[in-house]
């Protein structure tokens, strides 16, 4: 009670307002009654309209602060003092351990240092072939439904392609999710991702203790699938470690630099981690598993959402679609089967603007959380330790103060002439500062590869229900992310 009163006093001193609070419940009755996952983004819009961009929001015993204010977001994201995630993220721990996304303090700092070189240009360059091959399979599989009439929800289609891509690049294994969606590991990743999204929204499922009591069967199912995924990653890691060791032994006995892992075969992110060490100590299989599982999680639903929304927006803006298509033909040529190269991807400048603008309107990660570990001053306001912070990037990216005509899909905002006007904290789909997304270059290359492949094969048509964005761990759509397809003739 005392800390709550202290927080209220500090918020009042900082001029931060919020909905009325009730004893023990805080503002929960106002934020929960008649609200659901589907209304969450809308509820935040209503709160911003009523109380401004900085809002005090206490839920039960947890005091919280939500913000859509770019200056406040800047202050939080750029500080080394505010790198701890809030407890909403804890539910992911049973799968991801304390890998890069969830860790904090020294552990995070050290891991970030080791993992950063993993995403080096030279490593990403060899992934372009994987992006190209897997998106070719995605396009090939869609011809059946490309009759100009059938409504296609792109989310599940893009999800399987994204899973194939992330498994092959992070672990070096082809799981063939697109050919065999029932493969056990693929099933487990999909089931657990969906269950996590459900847990995120359902207070009774959010904590292991309450989920065990109220949803015992679901809890058991969740743990079985997590175990299945861990067993799979463990097996891949130990096999890759053996292969690496064998090739290093061969190398030392023949004295040659040629080795299986380093030159002939494509390096997976996992191989780079196997060769890394902290203070001279190699990473253990468990350390590596946390990181590989984190890549598998962070690296598939996010890109799925982005690819689907970008294709949707292009379907609904035919003139912009034509412009993006012309650029692709100018850069790659008219041969649909020609593989795309890293160089081509660098030249697809307009497509990059299209993707960036899609990430503005529909950011796959629409909010970012933090918890304060000590009293901190942020943008001139004093906040007490333990405050749970949520940065509403979805709303900040639609703030008319930073984006004129914010609801309009206008890729020109990101053209080389205008992009200097973009405020990097009002626009932060990959977050910003020390804890920004380590996979953002990877993601951009993957998105450009898949979207360009789709445009080379198909004309995208505005069919099906419009999207209704919902926050469900990542940004999805209640109605699906729909479009129609017609094979391109050129
Ligand atoms: C369009 C696709 C993507 C988007 C929009 C995105 C967005 C983000 C955001 C907003 C964060 C910060 C999260 C937070 O602070 O809570 C983040 C962190 C992270 N992302 Fe991404 N991401 C994408 C793709 C990827 C990919 C493909 C990978 C890996 C291959 C990846 C790996 C990570 C990791 C490991 C972190 C944690 C970094 C740290 O805390 O140091 N992401 N991402």
From TrEMBL:
It comes from the Eukaryota. It is found in: Endoplasmic reticulum membrane; Microsome membrane. It holds the Pfam family p450. Keywords: Endoplasmic reticulum, Heme, Iron, Metal-binding, Microsome, Monooxygenase, Oxidoreductase, Signal. It comes from Drosophila virilis. CDD domains: CYP4. InterPro entries: Cyt_P450, Cyt_P450_CS, Cyt_P450_E_grp-I, Cyt_P450_sf, Cytochrome_P450_Monoox. PROSITE patterns: CYTOCHROME_P450. Heme binds at residue 437. It is a peripheral membrane protein. GO terms for cellular component: endoplasmic reticulum membrane. Its cofactor is heme. GO terms for molecular function: heme binding; iron ion binding; monooxygenase activity; oxidoreductase activity, acting on paired donors, with incorporation or reduction of molecular oxygen. This is Uncharacterized protein. It is an enzyme of class 1 (oxidoreductase). Its EC number is 1.14.-.-. The keyword Lyase does not apply. Belongs to the cytochrome P450 family.
